[in-house]
Specification:
With about 575 residues, this protein is of the alpha+beta class. The chain has helices at about 85-100, 125-130, 180-195, 290-300, 305-310, 355-375, 390-395, 400-405, 420-435, 475-480, 500-510, 515, 545-550; strands spanning about 1-5, 5-10, 70-75, 75-80, 105-110, 125, 145, 150-155, 160-165, 175-180, 200, 205-210, 215-220, 230-235, 245-250, 260-270, 275-280, 315, 335, 340, 495, 520-525, 535, 555-560. Strands 9-8-15-16-17-14-18 form a seven-stranded mixed β-sheet. A four-stranded mixed β-sheet has the order 1-4-5-11, with helices on one face. It has a four-stranded mixed β-sheet with strand order 3-2-13-12, with no helix packed on it. Strand 12 and strand 13 (about 215-220) form a beta hairpin. Helix 1 (about 85-100) packs parallel to helix 3 and helix 6 packs antiparallel against helix 7. This is Electron transfer flavoprotein-ubiquinone oxidoreductase. Its EC number is 1.5.5.1.
Length: about 575
């Protein structure tokens, strides 16, 4: 978010003032290469054409061409139309209306519609919603399925070990609601518009603009009109197997004890027998042959899971990455001209697998810290962009920080000899009994990108062929995401060095981007000369999970926003 700054649009309209950075991620990919590849001795073919890598100032084709720039101003500009951004916008307008202040609040969202890029299970804890709208039921919020049953399991390859869901454990969902988060976000958008928030879907914020003193001035949307060369799913199931309100979680198989992850399966009450299911894999896994997408397909064949899905129909697919660093990874939240809210800075409660309620509350706290400054008659500011350190202070005094602190050690406790089982024992002792009050804070093991071992030190994973009934191939799954991008634009998946994929990633790690991408974006194909391999980027398949930017062992991939309106078109995921 940016309080009172400028927003310039490159060939788009724009706005100005306060920025919330938001992020997402997830898992998998299409094509598994089990044999080591030889590197090519010929010159590296050019892959990246994006102007962020190859400046137009040095491109003779752009000589004498001026792109028209439009600019607009607002009191507050919010980037990202998710639960946090919309909650911040709503709270700002609520305060403005209460105090009879004129306040222009604008929100830009890269998806073509509010909620179209929103993906989650989701099991919603309604704490923040009650604070934002005490009358949310009367307003028709789409929370139709209260949790009625909690099931937690440790899976072995053929069996299930039930784990009692005791009160106070992180996965206890009493009082929560199973929702389709995209529908909930769309409803928040409607509430925001009713209050007078200006929503601009289809506008991708691509650049932060700065004042001369270094404070944030606003944002710029990305250029358009440039030529190309310059895992959850929804299923309908057999009604006899449908148990509305049932929440199922599992850990264990098909992952080994040293790979963090697990599954969810939620029974929705949406007028038809719908379930939402997904598989989470920690991106600190070490085996480059692992494919999160294909682990998901294997999991669905477990004897405890398959009976629910047999006879049903897969109707939607998507993928995203989750920010699971927790309290230890939260960055500095405020800076002159802006502040960070939502999922990007890392407010997800990892053991609960829930972040919507904390994201919403962070947006509300941001709005409450910003409002008195942007509406002050006279305000003495050291920088042109307003600095709001009160937001970080208020957050640390809120229930969000208390909740994050209590669970801070659960995720890093899995880094031990016993892996999953050691982490569960630690959670039982120090969270369930002592409520996270231990006088130490564990550390994470480092960047996810640095955890992969060389392929020669790992065992290739033989995945079974999908049966087309319960398990499926990747490309037919991606087709269900509604993903679409304008074909004639520079690929938004950029490489800092076009030679690194073959010379390092393929040579050392057997091309892990082929497997960690959940949309078939990356594949290694033979050179036309037959002399070696090259990386092919199918950017049109990208579901905007940003896993590649996180897990690439060379940190050579830089995900930038494509033209606004592109990407997945999730329908109430």
């Amino acid at each position: 978010m940016f309080p009172a700054s400028r927003y310039s649009s490159k060939a788009h309209r724009c706005i100005r003032a306060l920025k919330t950075v938001q992020t997402e991620h997830a898992a998998p990919q299409l094509y598994t290469t089990l044999n080591r590849r030889t590197c090519s001795s010929v010159s590296t073919p050019r892959i990246t054409t994006h102007y962020t890598i190859h400046s137009r100032e040095k491109d003779p084709r752009w000589e004498g061409i001026e792109m028209e720039r439009f600019a607009d101003e607002a009191d507050v500009v919010i980037v990202g139309g998710g639960p946090a951004g919309l909650s911040a916008a709503i709270r700002l307008k609520q305060l403005a209306n209460k105090h009879e202040k004129e306040l222009r609040v604008c929100l830009v969202e890269k998806a073509s519609q509010i909620g179209a890029h929103t993906l989650s299970g989701a099991c919603l804890e309604p704490t923040a919603l009650r604070e934002l709208f005490p009358d949310w039921k009367e307003r028709g919020a789409p929370l139709n399925t209260p949790v009625t049953e909690d099931v937690f399991s440790i899976l072995t390859e053929k069996h299930r070990i039930p784990v009692p869901m005791l009160p106070g454990l992180p996965m206890n969902n009493h009082g929560n609601y199973i929702v389709r988060l995209g529908n909930f976000v769309r409803w928040l958008g409607e509430q925001a518009e009713e209050l007078g928030v200006e929503l601009y879907p289809g506008y991708a914020a691509a650049e932060v603009l700065f004042h001369e003193d270094g404070s944030v001035k606003g944002i710029a949307t990305n250029d358009v009109g440039i030529a190309k060369d310059g895992s959850p799913k929804l299923w309908t199931i057999d009604e006899k197997k449908w148990r509305p309100g049932r929440v199922e979680h599992s850990v264990g198989w098909p992952l080994n004890r040293h790979t963090y992850g697990g599954s969810f399966l939620y029974h929705l009450n949406e007028g038809e027998p719908l379930v939402a299911l997904g598989f989470v894999v920690g991106l600190d896994y070490t085996n480059p042959y692992l494919s999160p997408f294909r682990e998901f397909q294997r999991w669905k064949h477990h004897p405890f899971v398959a009976p629910t899905l047999e006879g049903g129909n897969r109707i939607a697919y998507g993928a995203r990455a989750l920010n699971e660093g927790g309290l230890q990874s939260i960055p500095k939240l405020t800076f002159p001209g802006g502040l960070l809210i939502g999922c990007s800075p890392g407010f997800m409660n990892v053991p609960k697998i829930k972040g919507t309620h904390t994201a919403m509350k962070s947006g509300m706290l941001a709005a409450e810290a910003i409002f008195p400054k942007v509406t002050a008659e006279s305000l003495d500011s050291e920088t042109a962009g307003l600095h709001t350190p009160e937001y970080a202070e208020n957050l640390k005094n809120s229930w969000v920080w208390k909740e994050m602190y209590a669970v801070r050690n659960i995720r890093p406790s899995f880094h031990n000899y016993f892996g999953l089982y050691g982490g569960m024992i630690y959670t039982g002792i120090f969270y369930w009994i002592f409520r996270g009050k231990e006088p130490w804070t564990l550390k994470h093991c480092g960047l996810d990108a640095n955890q992969l071992k060389p392929a020669k030190d790992c065992t290739p994973i033989e995945y079974p062929k999908p049966d087309g009934k319960i398990s499926f191939d990747l490309l037919s799954s991606v087709a269900l995401s509604g993903t679409n991008h304008e074909g004639d634009q520079p690929p938004h998946l950029t490489l800092k060095d076009d030679g690194v994929p073959v010379n390092r990633n393929l040579a050392i790690y057997d091309g892990p981007e082929q497997r960690f991408c959940p949309a078939g974006v990356y594949e290694y194909v033979p050179l036309e000369t037959g002399d070696g391999m090259r990386l092919q980027i199918n950017a049109q398949n990208c579901v905007h999970c940003k896993t590649c930017d996180i897990k690439d062992p060379s940190q050579n991939i830089n995900w930038v926003v494509p033209e606004g309106g592109g990407g997945p078109a999730y329908n109430g995921m």
